[in-house]
From TrEMBL:
MF term (GO), any: DNA strand exchange activity
The organism's place on the tree of life at top rank: Bacteria
SUPFAM superfamilies: Resolvase-like
Cited InterPro entries: DNA_bind_recomb_sf, DNA_bind_recombinase_dom, Resolv_N, Resolvase-like_N_sf, SSR_resolvase, Zn_ribbon_recom_dom
Occurrences of domain Recombinase (ranges): 154-279
Keyword Zinc carried by entry: no
UniProt keyword Coiled coil, yes or no: yes
Coiled-coil ranges (or none): 375-436
Regions crossing the membrane: none
Segments forming domain Resolvase/invertase-type recombinase catalytic: 2-146
Pfam families referenced in this protein's UniProt entry, alphabetically: Recombinase, Resolvase, Zn_ribbon_recom
Annotated CDD domains: Ser_Recombinase
Name of the protein in question: Recombinase family protein
Length: 504
């Protein structure tokens, strides 16, 4: 078995050495299981809540080339703290015939293990959200004092030692030029050309672009208003200045910033920007396909993809899933299936078999029994580690006694170093195993709460419905006369793992 290591540390109370500790533990695990390590990927000071991780994405890409057939992480939250991203990237690995293994979580391919993995990911996601909430609390206190909360200050400003803002006059001249030219009717391209001719750069030293101009022209800080927590984040964690949070989430303090442009200039720019907005028609709206990447044709096995078209005398809108093989090569005659119908089948199955009160009562005991078995394995590992540690300590003591009695030769130093290295590794493994046995043992009540938080799946927004489906559904197969949905817990208690609905 050939494996790649993925290790990561973020800035939340972790240091660079934690990557070394992860790699050391993974290599030890690999050597005890006859696994060959062929590549190591590491991301430093990167959060698992975002896929803005260069080495992680490189690993996903490399999984296509049969370099390795296994990815080993120290713990599942090193892979992702977001259930949706975790499910998405694990599916990519699975499609490339690559298995994900966690050193600390003893998981296998059984349905109980799969749902436990989902529970652990959910708990890690909760931890990440809770941590973000605590960090945000501290940042809000700083913001109420109109102080810098971190990151790069806006162009035109510097940060004083006490974290208050001051004007950077050279950069502020670029800001004034941008507002004055735009207010006078000049478009983005001539403004960018003028800035480049004058040698102005963005805060990061790059040339200006249309997006950076939009961000400047809509930034109220330049008119003296302190703003915090205004823009939302994209799925990959980056700021999206075009998507604004609700007013009750934003901290806005008039006069909280040194003013670079006048109120009159700001109003003139705003009026012009509002008049230039293009109202998008309803025909440009994009449908959200809840089953993307999960739905397959029962005739030829190809993936089914979303299709949106207007047809008939009244140009009615039809949204369907179609066999990609039929669409591409015409070699399959499977008919398209109505999007709303098949999505409702899957949502009903998830509710009835996972999230309803009766389903939860049936599932939880099996999951908890599996957890108990896994804890036995962890405790057995601890016993083995402690026995080996005791044996090594005896050898070290005997060697020290021999040296004290004058029996010393040059090979003893090398042997002593080997024993001490193994001792350090075992101490780390014991500490981590004991911690995992204590922390990663969800009670039946915790598992119930985890499942019940998605019991309102039928009322969730389309985006949240998609996240739940992508997390809990492995595969949907559409035949001419039926639809089968295969969920991560449908095998618990026996059966073929499918819930079947007669196709309309």
């Amino acid at each position: 078995m050939k494996a790649a290591i993925y290790a990561r540390y973020s800035s939340d109370n972790q240091r660079e050495e934690s990557i070394d500790a992860q790699i050391r533990a993974i290599k030890d695990f690999a050597s005890h299981n006859n696994i060959q390590i062929v590549k190591i990927y590491t991301d430093e000071a990167r959060s698992a809540t975002t896929d803005d991780r260069p080495q992680f994405l490189q690993m996903i890409k490399d999984s296509e080339f049969n370099i390795f057939n296994t990815v080993i992480v120290h713990k599942l939250d090193r892979f992702s703290r977001n259930r949706y991203d975790s499910a998405f990237y694990k599916k990519k690995l699975k499609d490339n015939h690559v298995k994900l293994i966690s050193v600390l979580e003893h998981l296998d391919d059984s349905p109980e293990s799969i749902i436990l993995e989902s529970v652990l990911e959910g708990m890690a996601e909760y931890y990440s959200i809770n941590l973000s909430r605590e960090v945000m609390k501290g940042m809000k206190e700083t913001a109420l004092q109109c102080k810098h909360t971190g990151g790069t200050p806006p162009l035109g400003y510097d940060v004083n030692p006490d974290k208050t803002y001051c004007i950077n006059e050279k950069e502020a001249n670029a800001i004034r030029l941008i507002f004055q030219m735009y207010a006078s009717g000049t478009g983005y391209t001539p403004i960018i050309d003028k800035l480049n001719d004058l040698g102005y750069k963005s805060k990061t030293g790059k040339s200006f672009g249309k997006n950076s101009l939009y961000g400047i022209l809509t930034n109220e800080k330049y008119r003296g208003v302190y703003i915090f927590n205004k823009s939302s984040k994209k799925i990959n964690g980056k700021r999206n200045s075009h998507k604004i949070k609700s007013e009750d989430e934003i901290i806005k303090i008039e006069g909280g910033m040194p003013e670079i442009i006048s109120e009159d200039l700001w109003k003139r720019v705003k009026i012009k920007m509002d008049s230039n907005k293009i109202n998008k028609g309803a025909n440009t709206a994009k449908a959200i396909y809840l089953l993307s990447g999960l739905i397959y044709c029962g005739k030829c096995g190809s993936a089914m993809t979303g299709n949106r078209r207007y047809a008939g005398r009244n140009k009615s809108l039809y949204e369907t899933y179609e066999c990609s093989n039929r669409k591409r090569t015409k070699q399959c005659d499977m008919k398209a299936i109505n999007k709303d119908y098949v999505e409702q089948v899957v949502i009903d199955d998830l509710y009835n078999n996972i999230f309803s009160d009766s389903a939860i009562e049936n599932i939880v005991p099996d999951i908890f029994a599996f957890i108990s078995e896994q804890n036995k394995i962890i405790n057995e590992d601890i016993k083995i580690y402690k026995k080996e540690l005791a044996d090594i300590q005896t050898k070290i003591d005997n060697m020290l006694d021999a040296i004290a009695n004058g029996f010393y030769n040059s090979s003893m130093k090398e042997k002593s170093d080997q024993l001490e290295t193994r001792k350090t590794t075992l101490l780390i493994r014991i500490n981590e195993a004991e911690r995992e046995a204590k922390l990663n043992s969800p009670t039946e009540d915790m598992i119930k709460k985890y499942l019940k938080k998605d019991s309102d799946i039928k009322q969730k927004s389309l985006e949240n419905k998609k996240k739940v489906i992508q997390t809990h559904v492995q595969k949907i197969t559409v035949y001419e006369d039926r639809i089968t949905t295969d969920t991560i817990v449908s095998l618990i208690g026996g059966g073929d793992g499918c819930r079947t609905r007669v196709r309309k």
